[in-house]
């Protein structure tokens, strides 16, 4: 799994990432529909085109972490709720996260680590 901090990705790098993208997309669509919002309304609030929202919901494109955070706000939920249940085996996930973290600048690693720790604390309650 790769974490995308500033831009979306158009292609899953692994079957696991593809599966996670589809699960996330389903969750985004579910939240949007519960609020009785259209893809166009979400796109307007996010300042993207409607096709981008469609790609997110189909799992064809993974939103960046920043975009995902904005989506959570628009959908009146939090990141933990959107990504909850979208995980791989803990050891495999830890290795992939470590690899992804190594590619980041130190300041980005610290920022992301803080967010991840907060999310873990919330999910562990």
Please provide a written account of the structure.
The protein has 125 residues and is an all-alpha fold. The chain has seven helices and no strands. The protein has helices spanning 15-34, 39-46, 50-58, 65-74, 79-83, 90-102, 106-124. Helix 2 packs across helix 3 (50-58). The two termini are 25 Å apart. Residues 1-8 have low confidence and may be disordered.
- Rounded mean pLDDT score: 83
Radius of gyration: 14 Å
* DSSP E strands, number: 0
Report the sheet-strand fraction. Answer: under 5%
Helix/strand structural class? mainly alpha
Task: Spell the H/E element sequence.
Answer: HHHHHHH
The biggest sheet amounts to:
none
Morphology call: globular
Distinct helical segment count: 7
Enumerate the spans where pLDDT stays under 50 for 5 or more consecutive residues. Answer: 1-8
- Binned, the helix content reads 55-70%
Report, as a whole number of angstroms, the end-to-end distance: 25 Å
Sum this structure up briefly.
Helices cover 67% and strands 0% of the residues. The protein is an all-alpha fold and 125 residues long.
Summarize the topology.
Layout: H1 15-34, H2 39-46, H3 50-58, H4 65-74, H5 79-83, H6 90-102, H7 106-124
Helix pairs in contact: 1-3, 2-3
Main traits of this protein?
125 residues; mainly alpha; 7 helices; 67% helix; globular; disordered N terminus
């Amino acid at each position: 799994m790769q974490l995308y901090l500033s831009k979306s990705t158009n292609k899953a790098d692994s079957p696991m990432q593809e599966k996670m993208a589809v699960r996330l997309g389903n969750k985004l669509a579910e939240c949007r529909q519960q609020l009785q919002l259209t893809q166009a309304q979400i796109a307007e609030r996010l300042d993207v085109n409607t096709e981008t929202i469609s790609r997110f919901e189909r799992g064809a494109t993974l939103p960046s972490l920043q975009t995902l955070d904005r989506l959570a706000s628009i959908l009146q939920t939090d990141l933990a709720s959107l990504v909850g249940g979208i995980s791989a085996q803990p050891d495999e996930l830890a290795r992939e996260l470590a690899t992804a973290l190594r590619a980041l600048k130190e300041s980005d690693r610290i920022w992301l680590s803080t967010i991840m720790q907060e999310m873990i604390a919330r999910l562990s309650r």
